[in-house]
Records
---
Amino acid sequence: MSPAGASIVVTLDIGGSAAKASAYDVARRACAGQASRAYPAAGRDADPGMFDPGAWWLAAVGALRALWQRLDQPAGRCLGITVSAIRIPFVLVGAGGEAVMPGLLNKDRRAQAHVGEARAPLGADGLYRLTGHWPAPEFGLPKLLWARANHPQAWHRTRTVLQLHDWFIYRLSGTVASERSSAAMSQMLDVRAGTWARGLLAELGLPAGLLPELRPAGAPAGGLLRAVADATGFAAGTPVHVGGGDTHMSALSAAAGSGIPVVVAGTTAPTVLAVPAAASACPSDASFPLLVSDHVVAGQRVLETNAGATGAIAASLDDLGARARGSLREALAARGVCLADGEPGEPLTVLAGNPFFGPDGWAASPPPTVIGLRDSARGGDVYRAALYGVCLAICATLGCLLRRSGAVAPFVAATGGMSRSRAWAQLLADVTGTPVHVRPLERISGRAGAVLVTGEDPSRRPPHEEETRVHEPDAAAGPLHDAGLARYQRLYRTAQLAASAKAQAQAQAQAEVSCAGPR
């Protein structure tokens, strides 16, 4: 039980590169402070597609400790703690509560060989209708099948499969539980029934007993463990509440409301639309390929598309400044960016996001590519072209979301790190031809966690509503951007085909080496 006068809610946000802790003061209805800790740098021989759950937990403890020191408040002022986390990774947990092996990251595709196995019981259409997610190696089910096949000893030791959100709730409170918005991309949920897809799991030989009880977002999970309290400065027994998936929580913080698309412009760029649950009772041919999951808001579901690695690419290019010619090319190569010749007279283009959403669009991912780099170009030109590429990719995936959902958007809400840039937000409005509304991140960070912990009506307008930045599109530029999108899609498709051919050639070469055996 929290003491009288407690008003701070803490959200532990587990991202792909760092753990961030945000404090939201429900009395002032504003963010009260933030702190983050990056995960330890991987060693030279580390597997880039995997992560260490224990190391990520230590980073989270460090973020919580730094936040509490920054707040400089009595321990009892904390009303509750909750968790927001990236949604695909999971942790295999042993009998003693330990992680029995590293986890697989979101974009890792090593489970490609197990996609057919995941699809076999129901077929591609049946799997989508049941889980709201089409067959793809990025999602959790093929990854789990890969772990079982390739790490049999770790699988034998596994007693519980926890989504990343669940793992942090467990480490905070000792409670083993899962939550639907977070677990949806495990591809093991029946999205219509809101239960684990036990029939599918049985067909695949996956014991349903490995999966924890499902609880709604905001439900009490337990009290903060004494050891965690001692390590962070928070009071032992502070209520820990079930949280949700990071994209869902970000959309709730943006407070756009049902029927308004939200672009969560972070490392990747998901675009989500909250709709009444009754309006999306079961994924269908009409909604394909939209991803479907329960929202953290009761009675709502979320329809989703994603433009992939966007913010991550732009962030890698934002310090190029006045570099030119050889220096610029060397800097791009050092960042893993490819160079390609462009057609004479066509503008500089950076492929910084995937404009094709769905199984075919996800089948191959070309590397970040700069097309048509001339000697006269500077680093700043490349960065601006990357921002334009990001907006074009989001425009395409937003269009997919609106067409398939039948929604008409009076405006688009933008949140996430890229939304801090007025230039980017205005460019997004111009490219999409739709007003873009941005609420200040420093005011709304952690708001979703506070809504879940306190049970506040999520539709309640925050007092800083008047601070919303509104970016109106330049209607006269519409045809120019339409042509730019068509060109971007053509160039991206060409790069995808090249990436696919290269991957097939490498796979063939590896197969030939394996068949030849040692000499």
---
Amino acid sequence: MLLWWIILIVIVAFLVIWAIRQSSAAPARAPAPAPAPANMLLGTWNDEAGFFYNIYSNLNALWAINHFGNHIKPIVLFSGGLYKETRPEYTYQIPSYDPLNWYNHYFIPVNETQKPQEYWERRQPKTCLIKHLRNPEPGGEYVFNRTLLDHIVHMITDRAAAYREMWNKYCKPRQYILDIVQQFKTKHFTPGYHVITVHIRLTDKNPSCGFGPGMKKIKDGSSEDFPQKVTADFVFSLIQREIGARAWGTQVCIFVATDEEKMLQDITKLAGAVGLYVCYTDCIRSQMDTAGFNLDTGLCDKGDFSTPECIAYNQMIDASIHRGHKNLSNYRKGLEAMVDMLLLAEGDLFLRSRGNFSNFPEYLRPDRPTVDMVDEWNALVS
């Protein structure tokens, strides 16, 4: 009987050892692969819009993709609009030329694609809505279109914080642009001096009581797209007021970004008369003088010369930096916008106008005091 017990124990021990060896020899089961992310194209948002409107729209789309977080890979492809440049006499100037994507001329690419925008538009119907953000098909291909963008804009409660976060995450300016900004600061921003940055938007923005032809009128010209056009004397009075309130004296550097040459020269002359230094970049500027312009262009349209207001409206379109000057480099226009915006984000005090060009320095520097010159102007003339 004892012998049988010994044999049974030996057999059980053998089976246990064999099972252990088999389990250790078996390869570990690999985890299930994660589903492939969907690809979502962020294309040119408006073929007639300015540089920073397209960047602003992009930040809204990027916020939505991050907000829903459902395995979507954004692909930024700006293939059309006012900043596309294909003319050989200008493309040779672009350090990072991309024939498909002008966004890459100024920023580090966001998930590049070799497929043209037309391919993506064929892949996704224009009815693309919020459901694709919530439940994208793994590996699917989508276009983030204007219908979806208009919906997303109203979902963001703290826009400045959202845009700043998306800029810092995705919008990485090319190093050569950062070098241009740094070289300018080294040359003009004297150590120990206070720096005031001033953006004066004139030709590119039309003052109006309305949003456009056939659309509902508003009460005044203080909206973002139709600002009142301030004068040089008024701007400089604000600069002097802010310097005096802070007791900065004459140890001040004033950086001015404006799209009109006459305004720049007038501010420089006023500042020089009281011993203040003004600096600015070498940019394409309009030769019009629209300071103090107060005609209502709300019912005017491109090509309409039926009234004095509409004649002036179309003159401003032709003289506009981003909509006019078709014979000049579109790349250069974008480069100058980038450099001036980054310089406006420097310094101790910001005097701003209306529009995305003025919005972005404020997004990037929320800690800095800001004076809204349009609000100040409307309070003065109302």
---
Amino acid sequence: MANQRRRAQRLRDGRQRPASTSHYSRTERQLTNDLRSIVPSGSLRSSLILLRANTSIRERPDRFALGLSAALPYRNSMLAAVAASATRYPRAVAVATADHRVTYRQLWRGSNALARGLSEGGVLSTDRVGILCGNSSMFVYALLGATKLGVDIVLLNTAMGAAQLAEVIAGEKLTTILHDNDFGAALSTIDGVWAVDATQMHAILNSYPRAWLAPPRRDSRLIILTSGTTGRPKGAARSSGSSSIDGVAALLGPVPYRLRDTTVIAAPFFHGWGLANLLVGLGLSATVLTAPEFDAAHTLSLLSEHKARALVVVPTMLQRICALSPTRLARADTDDLRIIASSGSALPGRLVTTVLDRFGPVLYNVYGSTEVAVASIATPADLRRAPTTAGRRALGVGVELLDEHGASVGNGTVGGIFVASSARFDGYTNGHNKKVVNGLISTGDLGYFDEHGRLFVVGREDDMIVSGGENVYPSEIEELLNNDERIAEAAVVGVEDDGFGQALKAVIVVAPNRHVDEQELKDLIAHRLARFKVPRIFEFVDALPRNATGKILRRQLN
């Protein structure tokens, strides 16, 4: 009898197929049509990509059909994906940290409760709600609960200081903030905002254990703050109900995410990259392992102890993992790891080779931005052949390189990178937009295609340095310096100069227990590149200034 109960439990959790499922059988085309009924904007190819990622021969086929039925009332919003997972795998762990884990059923019911409590507290669908939480189940409760009310949601950077936080809250006209307890003091001085901390949110979850909500009449807008490397962060808005099947398939085509993966997401949830992977994971009924603060050793332990199949990072996180001791790296069991997905800033070529050599052909470099979503993806094969590539155009995404007159440039010629994507943002909340040419939106980057169709990003348009009449792209010099084993990391910027207009300045972090002097670096650059690309100024520092997502704050280096 006990064995029968255990077998029944395994069937409910989807870990074992029933002996006979012929009466549940459905053709791939039938399932694809069901999927497209939720997201009708998608192409058949995109539907098949999602079907491949979201089904398994080890799953009872009726689970997929039940999930689709649960998703239908929510159309193509993020709520549809989570509703499906909560129906297919209610007892499966959705999000886990070191001290808390929540199942899909708890996540769905808890977000209902939070939405009910916020509504009774006076939050209206016309309000704008901020989320100021580190990576945790509470972030996900807050995100889903606010979405169920149809409010606009602003994801706040947890690394912002009190002054900048107050400025952003005022600029984005927030009425309610859902936040971790650590931010209570910073928010207490801001008038006109209802601040709900984690303790209060937990109380609300427990107050409405059986709350039911009809699907919201209005789709929430998700507002992600830009990195703010050149000034106050701008809010980039995107409807939670506008994410087309093609936008999701652009990522799932080359990157082999699969149903019920165990995924470690180290990238912050408030950032577009971390958020995208969180939502993909929830839609694939994955177990997402995370932590409020990144720690390289802890992240490696999560991969090893939970036999995780995927890791989501920004490049600086990957650098810190690879900088762990050889003994620590060798001791970690990463045999089940199939995906290391990196985005947010450029991957140094030396780091790419190190990762491929240590972890195998599992590294994917995803290029895009908050505004355009995914533009191109470099697979492990691409990166082995060309370590600095940003990859090839993603499925269903147009990428064109244009000159200053809006004309396309040929292979090997540097141009502005412009993208056409169904997943593009709606515009900034301040009413501005990115530059658009013939329906293509600018990423603000410069790059070129090689003869194999691989994209290479040479830097930001704003970062290009004109020195003595010559155009210099910092990334070329930085890549050369970063490939030197004596250098931990390097950045090159332009500084004002009376004689040259701008002079090149290299800021260097020397690797531990190594030594290099200025003349050696000048000789290295002069030998490998043109003489006008040799920086006139070298500064040696302990670390480069970075924001919470790992991007270098170049304005602090000038």
---
Amino acid sequence: MSVLPFFCPSCAADARQVNQPNPAIVTQLAVRRLPRWALLLFCAAYVLPGFLGREPWKNADVAAFGYMRELALGGADWLHPLLLGLPPEIDALLPYWLGAWALQALPTWIAPALAVRLPFVAALALTFAATWYGVYHLARDETAQPVAFAFGGEAQPRDYARTLADASVLALMACLGLALLSHETTPAQIQLCLTALSFYAHAAAMHKRVLPSLALAIGLLGLSLSGAPAMGLLLGLGSAAISTGQRRQRRWALYTLGICLLAALLAWRWGLWHWRIVLPQGKDWRALATLLLWFTWPVGPLALWTLWRWRYQLLSPRIALHMGLPVWYALVALGTTALTQASDRSLLLALPALAVLAAFALPTLQRSVSSLTDWFSLMFFTGWAFALWLYWIALQTGHPAAAAATAARRLPGFVPGFSALECGVALGATLAWAGLVRWRVGRHRAALWKSMVLPAGGVTLGWLLLMTLWLPTLDHARSYAPWVARIQQEWPAPPRCVEVWGLTRGQIAALRYHSPLLLRVAPSPSACPYLLLEGDAQGKGPIDLDLSPWVFQTLIRRPLDQNESMLLYRRRTDGA
């Protein structure tokens, strides 16, 4: 019987912690380094498309742009942004400030829609960087290290940590739910960056102090200013509790508590605390389950596998940091998803933590599972790319006739055009995918990150094709620009002002941006000559507005969305 518990109880606890079964059995050959140029090229190919060359899209994207533009032009209070008297749906300040500052600082020859996106480009890049460095520091912890071999040959700590960090970034890019929402200029995108930044701070606090302290302050305070003060408080308090169980981390836990208190006071001072909880009976659980399945693919199943294989480190009295930290971040985001209306945007914040857990699943996967993942990714994304090319060619040439007829039926009013630059980029991305597939199925040394290459490459390829070949189509379908142009065709000369009633924030922002109209909320003393109000699919407007001074002129439906219609009235004159 060991006498260690009698003389040193804490040492005995540490010994039990270290001696728990470790599922990671990794050789030095398996931590082959992913070339930096390849990882950076992956990130650039994923981040830049979607921010460049497109119009603001409905609904949240163009609405957020409208608030940023109002602040930059001096039409709203910086602490209480309004758009034609309407406050934002999310009580956020920082995201709108970032876009407005970019509009004011950048030269006027840069399109406003592009200028406001530049801070969000940096935020998405920072999300990837924070995830990489967070996993790198977590994987260097002794509880995360692979099993040591009797005669050597196991993976070296830094090489192992670097390999898992590479895999985590690839896993994050492979998430199907990340692509669209991470390229919008909305508070959710900034919340994603700040969540990843605070995660990095807790992961790196074991090895550094200055940079993690700064990152934690920016992350938690920024979440309070970005519409998620309660989530930031939960993340900070839970992480502080986990840190108190780690050696030499109690001072860090106290610092975290102090930042949490400051963030809570900041949110209280500026009125950012609001109740958004939806009772369970108000949720569609089947739709939520479907969202969880496709939104988190493929990291969701891998994260569950990680929880099973690393369960001893998770359930031990002193929770291993590389398990406890990402699990807590994922649980908070998943709980927010289940208890709020904005399920997809709340679930977005769980993706970095799930990608971290997926990276720790790779050392424990059997070869058959890795092969199945590769073959599924190969077949799915190759078929997707083939379909995108086929229908694009059909739009351009009219052949194949069946595909061209289908595309024309689903895109009424769209006139296709050709861009040599966009076609060249799409062709280069497709050839790169073919080269990546050839490399993956070839004979070469094993690497842990290899199982994430095809999923990440396939999502990047699909996103690139959408943002090049199909960008004009997406602008036609998701932008309000064609709809605003259609409205302006209804009067012979632009009026000095137009009264509006019942319009959404996105519609108001689009009218302000795509036209020179001065909007007034009806009824207005300005006596504007025209009235715009939102109607239903049958063209019926609101019943709580007096329409006696107005004469109905026409019904304007938005292209590709017959349920979104606008009723145009002109002011009644004598005898009319």
